[in-house]
Specification:
The chain has six helices and no strands. With about 120 residues, it is an all-alpha fold. α2 packs across α4 and α3 crosses α4.
């Protein structure tokens, strides 16, 4: 059985977390994270915390680890997310830009030269 890492809070951290957990103007995600860490510091398991709060045990484990790695600052921001591949290939984008700048649709009323002159 895996045991979650123990969290020990300084008095200053406890004050901040309690304030954030009760804050009316604190973002909801920070409220949840603060409550998770406070309960973890009291010795509650991730499963117990998840049952008490509207979350999952893996979320509790995640914020427990992030708090241990970055303390209070870690609770304030989300980790960067990976950006997926472009849905349109570079070749297609270049072709669209080229066609837009160098050709005139059959029913166009203005030439590219006239439009370019307006933009400069």
């Amino acid at each position: 059985m895996r045991v979650a890492p123990r969290i020990t809070l300084s008095e200053d951290e406890r004050v901040h977390l309690t304030s954030w957990a009760r804050g009316r103007f604190t973002p909801p995600r920070v409220v949840l994270r603060s409550r998770i860490v406070l309960r973890a510091a009291e010795g509650a398991t991730n499963k117990t915390i998840a049952e008490e709060l509207p979350t999952e045990s893996n979320t509790c484990a995640l914020w427990r680890r992030r708090f241990l790695a970055g303390r209070l600052q870690a609770l304030m921001s989300d980790a960067p997310r990976a950006v997926g591949p472009l849905s349109v290939p570079d070749v297609t984008i270049r072709a669209i830009v080229h066609d837009t700048l160098h050709s005139k649709p059959p029913d166009a009323t203005h030439s590219i030269a006239a439009i370019s002159g307006c933009l400069t």
